[in-house]
Amino acid sequence: MSRRCFLIVNPTSGTYSPQKIERIMKGLAERGFAPELLPTQSAADPARFAARLCREESDPLIVVAGGDGTINGVLNGLAPGAATLGVIPLGTSNVLARELEITSVDDALDRLAHGDARPISVGEIVAGGERRRFILMAGVGFDGAVVRDVRLSEKKALGKGAYVLSALRTLWNWDASTVAVTAGERNVSCHGVIVCNASKYGGNFRLAPEADLFAPGFQVLCISGGRLAYLGLALGLLNGTAVFSSHVTCFNALALEISGDKAVQLDGDYVCPAPLAVRTVPDLVRLVV
Ligand SMILES: Nc1ncnc2c1ncn2[C@@H]1O[C@H](COP(=O)(O)OP(=O)(O)OP(=O)(O)O)[C@@H](O)[C@H]1O
């Protein structure tokens, strides 16, 4: 008998096309699945669909054909321990797929057919009385501002280039204020923070080698310094040496608090200003690997 699965598709994801979805539906059927197609119509749909599937189905296999923002939406609708999640990369950056070393749509389909799944830990923030989960990272400060200030028109015209333009604007309108990071006995004053639940960041760049999706907790990077420090970090990101920079204080934590009112991004989408509390949530969902 075919195994049911639910394919959540975001038609606005960076590399979506109707032809690709047709190919994916066919590929799933060829691998013994009976896929049900769930196209989203708004940014609220991924979480709504996931919540409904967790309520109405027993251990549903929820497959996201989209990017990290759509996966984040689904993550925020899941009931703990109630589903299995698969990923087919159709976004722009596809950082989660890169973390799992998924090399193509066909590779993703083969992994679904193979069916190996492992429980993952995710992060959860509380800010302004709201809770929100992330799977990859929470960025506070520079990267939060870059994501917040990306212009839609530039994103449509330039894709990833729009983030470079936004970064240049953020560097120009420099905010020199600092934030306080508290994790247990540790207190760090710094300019910005990246709380990493996964090792990759911004594409195929390994920012946080000690961050592990499959273990509770984060690798936290507290960044000090001005514009030049960030330019150095951007180079360090390219060759995997950012954590060794003298501008970065690095530690591992299960929970932390971040003060101030700087912009916060989760998994590449702006969510709110700080302050915020961050904690790890073990075993939220089983992820197809
Ligand atoms: N039907 C829809 N209309 C508008 N926005 C949507 C819709 N469905 C989902 N979204 C939102 O679109 C945003 C971007 O989607 P997604 O992350 O899949 O693509 P991407 O930005 O190209 O990829 P990546 O995040 O990997 O770079 C997400 O925040 C998601 O919640």
What does this structure look like?
- This protein is of the alpha+beta class.
- The chain folds into two domains: 3-115, 3-Layer(aba) Sandwich (Rossmann fold), CATH 3.40.50.10330; 124-282, Tumour Suppressor Smad4 (Sandwich).
- Helices cover 30% and strands 36% of the residues.
- It is built from nine helices and 18 strands.
- Helix 6 (142-148) packs across helix 8 and helix 7 (152-158) packs across helix 8 (161-172).
- The longest helix has 13 residues, at 18-30.
- The protein is globular.
- The two termini are 23 Å apart.
List keywords for this structure.
single chain; 289 residues; alpha+beta; Rossmann fold; Tumour Suppressor Smad4; 2 domains; 10-stranded mixed sheet; 6-stranded antiparallel sheet; 9 helices; 18 strands; 30% helix; 36% strand; globular; binds adenosine-5'-triphosphate; YegS/Rv2252/BmrU family lipid kinase; kinase; nucleotide-binding; phospholipid biosynthesis
Short note summarizing the structure:
Keywords: ATP-binding, Kinase, Lipid biosynthesis, Lipid metabolism, Magnesium, Metal-binding, Nucleotide-binding, Phospholipid biosynthesis, Phospholipid metabolism, Transferase. The protein has 289 residues and is α+β, with helices and mostly antiparallel strands. The protein is 30% helix and 36% strand.
CATH architecture annotation name of the largest domain: Sandwich
Give the radius of gyration: 19 Å
The span between the termini is: 23 Å
Structural class: alpha+beta
Runs with pLDDT <50, length 5+?
A: none
Hey, roughly how much beta strand do the residues contain? 35-45%
As for the CATH topology of the largest domain, it is: Tumour Suppressor Smad4
Biggest sheet layout: 10 strands, mixed
Mean pLDDT: 96
Chemical compounds bound to the protein: adenosine-5'-triphosphate
Q: In DSSP terms, counting alpha (H) and pi (I) runs of 4 or more, how many helices?
A: 9
Count of extended strands = 18
